[in-house]
Amino acid sequence: MRLSTTALGWKAGPRRIVEDVTLEIASGETFGLIGPNGSGKSTLLRLIAGLLPRAEGEVRLDGTSLSRLSRRQIARRIALVEQQADTDESLSVRAAVELGRTPWLSALQPLGAADAQIVDQALAAVGMAQMTGAHWPTLSGGERQRVHIARALAQRPRLLLLDEPTNHLDIHHQLALLRLVDRLPVTVILALHDLNQAMGCDRLGVMADGRLIACGRPRDVLTPARLAQTFRVGATALTDPADHATLLRFRCLEE
Ligand SMILES: Nc1ncnc2c1ncn2[C@@H]1O[C@H](COP(=O)(O)OP(=O)(O)OP(=O)(O)O)[C@@H](O)[C@H]1O
């Protein structure tokens, strides 16, 4: 699904949180959103998902304005996993993931065999297939995060929005998730803090003070000048002899 935003903005009272974000993301692209704390990444994801009232500007999905779509139509197209997502405490893992099928069911319609298969696949994709009966309060932070991602996958969106999805995950599950996202045949936008992980995205957008200040291929965006100005770090580029991939080693520029 192709996404375009035009002059997207949002204010909290008098304070401008996101300003004038115009962006084109191609179908199937994995787009990383990076930027310092409080730069507006989560707010931009919520704006793209159509979740914020009084939004300025426009979001278009394959050319159709989000404002012309119902909540249900949007939920069939876009899934968002937020940073501090929560769920009903009494749910089992499987029931939590089944909620992802809601936009595809009519009122009171039970899950069918095809839905159950999609839920199974989503649970397997995040490595939670062995824990389907576990209850929400008993899950670790990383397990909860993986269930949220499974729920989003079960929604079968064409645009997947992930806010710091590797937070809470151990290194194996971080890498497995990034590989999964990379292989998904859908458009993905993910907010990331780990700039080495961000290097694996097709393109990056850099947020600072609510504005999109740079956009392009990772190596063109993560320049020494950008890292110094926006992230206040210096970096040395190292080459992994195993596959010649470039890794950045950071150092703080200020005391
Ligand atoms: N509903 C709100 N009301 C008031 N201020 C808000 C609201 N939502 C976000 N903000 C403020 O807007 C700024 C941007 O927040 P946002 O969560 O979008 O940043 P972020 O780039 O995702 O940050 P982080 O990297 O720390 O997760 C922050 O200063 C935050 O305090």
UniProtKB/TrEMBL annotation:
Domain ABC transporter: start-end pairs: 1-234
Listed InterPro entries: AAA+_ATPase, ABC_transporter-like_ATP-bd, P-loop_NTPase
Keywords: ATP-binding, Nucleotide-binding
GO molecular function: ATP binding
Pfam families: ABC_tran
Family matches, as PROSITE patterns: ABC_TRANSPORTER_2 (PS50893)
Classification via PANTHER family: ABC TRANSPORTER ATP-BINDING PROTEIN, HEMIN IMPORT ATP-BINDING PROTEIN HMUV
Name of the protein in its database record: ABC transporter ATP-binding protein
Annotated organism of origin: Paracoccus simplex
